[in-house]
Amino acid sequence: MRYLPKSQSDRELMLHEIGAKSIDDLFDAIPAEYRLKGDLNIPRQYAESEIVEFFRQRAANSAQGYATFLGAGAYSHYRPVVIDALISRGEFFTAYTPYQPEIAQGTLQSIFEFQTMICELTGMDVANASMYDGSTGAAEALMMAARITGKSKGAVALTVHPEYREVITTYTRYQGMPISTFGYAKNGRIDLDTLDMAVDEETAGVLIQSPNFFGTIEDVAAIADIVHSKGALLIVSIAEAVSLGIVKPPAEADIVSLEAQSFGVPLGFGGPYCGVMATRDRLVRQMPGRLVGETRDRNGKRGFVLTLSTREQHIRREKATSNICTNQGLVALMCGIFMSVYGREGLKELATQNLAKAHYAAEQFKKAGATLLFEGAPRFNEFVIQTKNDPYTINDHLLGKQIIGGFPLKKFYSELNNAALWCCTETTTKASIDAAAKEVAL
Amino acid sequence: MNPNEKIRKATTHISQNEGLIFEKSSPGKKAYRLPPLDVPAVDPDELLGGQARESLGEMPEVSEIEIIRHYTRISTWNYAVDHGMYPLGSCTMKYNARVNEYVARLMGLAEAHPYQPERISQGALRILKMLSEQLIEITGMDAITLQPAAGAHGELTGILMVRAYLESRGNPRKKILIPDSAHGTNPATAAMSGYTVENLKSNSAGMVDIASLEAQVNEDVAALMLTNPNTLGVFEQEIHKIADVLHAKGALLYMDGANMNALVGKVRPGDFGADVMHLNLHKTFSTPHGGGGPGSGPVACKKMLEPFLPAPVVIQKQDGTLGFDYNRPKSIGRVRMFYGNFGMHVRALAYIMANGPDGLRQTTEDAVLNANYIRKKLEGIYDLPYTTPTMHEVVFSDRRQVGKGVRTGDIAKRLIDYGFHPYTVSFPLVVPGALMIEPTESESKEELDQFIDAMKAIAQEAEENPEIIADAPYNTRISRLDEVGAARKPVLRWKPQREVVAK
Question: Domain B101-352 - what CATH class?
Fold first, then answer.
């Protein structure tokens, strides 16, 4: 086996040193009746060339070279080449959690920079070193709100990504945390009256998403006023991180739960992605996940360490803020590199291109005869189009032209028949928009 | 005396200093160029109304070469598996094969959108199906979900499934039993699943005490969460008896698969009585640890728990194509959006293919051989609190050194000077001053001998020159850091120093 660095004589020598007659002696602790007598029933050893060929075929059997209008929580942005060049350094990807700071300053400093960039973009004071993804991060944020307020209920907007809401249901079911929902108005924004009704004195946290699942940008300040007047915390989930380049940060929120996949993380059929949680200084001790802090060594030199770990499971066990241990370290590094590449000006320019493409597409689709839903509120790079025909039928036509159409919404919103959520990013071309516009009109 | 006298594996060399990326920033520098906009330009203020952003604050402005140098320089400050042995117990820091990285980046896999139509996702679905089948075979279980993103996430999934199963039989019960040697994630998971935690004491051999177990298992106990081999590296020899005691009272056996690297190809948890377990693909199946993640924590279970698996599951449809089945009325629901950390699934499957049944077995044998070799060579030099047979990891204590004021954490720091990443310090909690060493199969005899020599040299220093250890490490970029100060006055982000700028 080519990954194993021992010859047969090394093994024999080592067994001899141990005083074992054969390798089986070392497995004596396992009762004989349970030990496997033969081989596992899995394929034989493959050569590296065969492995590459196998996966090339699987890749060829998945969409390649399609123009896509899918967003809905996973966004197709260009990934600068330097990202993979840098994260492929073994020093980064074959290290683990920086438990020994003297030989992990590379990881620690990159996380500290990541935390800082997330704070700058979200308008929060502190950010953690990452969560599994945006969905679990949103669930953990609600549980964090319950710990802080000492209240038990949660309220979640129906315009939060439906799969996030499913995860929240699973996570909160046994936390004694009933979750209520509130709806949306004609312009796609949260219906403030139903919000007002969904929140009461027992509500710990209110979760909204902005831009929301329909691509509509919420009026966070107005929502925060209502939520705070009832003594609850406002949690803002952001699924499309590139929006932060041009959209006002949710500075009125108490907790921001971001999915940073848009920052240079491959779509990868849904994962791994990069959740991250950010909050106010005063709430940090209830935030889950690892945190990196700045400190000094014995010679006064600046260095970084994991800190505030008394929140975490390896110290607090059943009283910890969460059971989370492994996070998304390398993915957070991708995001950090992406944010460095685009930086202060580039993120704005990038976001503006997204805005322009989506605006152009919405206008073209309208001209072609489709109905643009939720007009009257600002959008970022997604919009909802209603068509005469079933969006699945339209998408079938488009597939023949190497175009993946918008996400049909009736899977999650039965009231939105023949409606689909379309997304344009900087990678969407005018030509593919024009081609799609012809089909949506049919 | 020269503190570097006995150090063989490592030598210091020039390493570059590097500030924070923000400290390199200055207005007008760029590392990007967007293509010309092929649609009419828009005015964000007009389109977004009051929601347009004014400024991006302190986000850096740097050039591409500076980004390459920045991350390259700081990367050289890390120790990694690619440098050498990384014997962090319970973490299974094995070699991360490069072909896995290559295939995970193939277009068609890396660029697949999770919502693209199933009929143009058959390749990705095939990978999920194959990995599922092979992990089922490896664990001896009946069904699996690949959705959980990490080990602790798998624990949560598995315990919620236990709860849903027991609930379907009329009583979810109240407690989870957890041995005192368990990982902290186990009790934290039980709490998140709405259970209280009851501690189970180990016996003098470091194993579950059957008499205590029998006394503690009753109709209130939902499950025992058991790591096997446990965190002492000891196989629970009476594992089937443990399962029987639980099953007789209607409770289930959850197996924490963190230490599965000791078992693959030799024995299957499904055969010795486990009802549900998670795997850590980033441990046993070689997906990279990435400085903290991403991981992947599939959960395998017996038939009776299958209806409760998270939705969706991959199925073969009537026309022979693969697809997702969302219609799972008894499912615990989703634990993550989409289908899990697919990129890790690709890598794990590539690892299994590279090994085959004989390679996986040899891997396990080498991992156990390496741990036993270290045990044999260091026994008598470091205290071995449990003499029960060792599987893939060995746990010593600092009892012999502590009299000289040298503790496990100090030995760990000195090991850094000797060119190794330290073992896991002060865990498991059942061993005061623990040194938890897991070499994995990836170490050659030469590397192990160097490690053993380093450990011996440090033990000798502890005898003759203990103060040298107290101040270690010496050869790193930075010396021991003030962790207490970091927690007392947390500085969790960079801020510009305005007065310096003004000068």
Answer: alpha beta
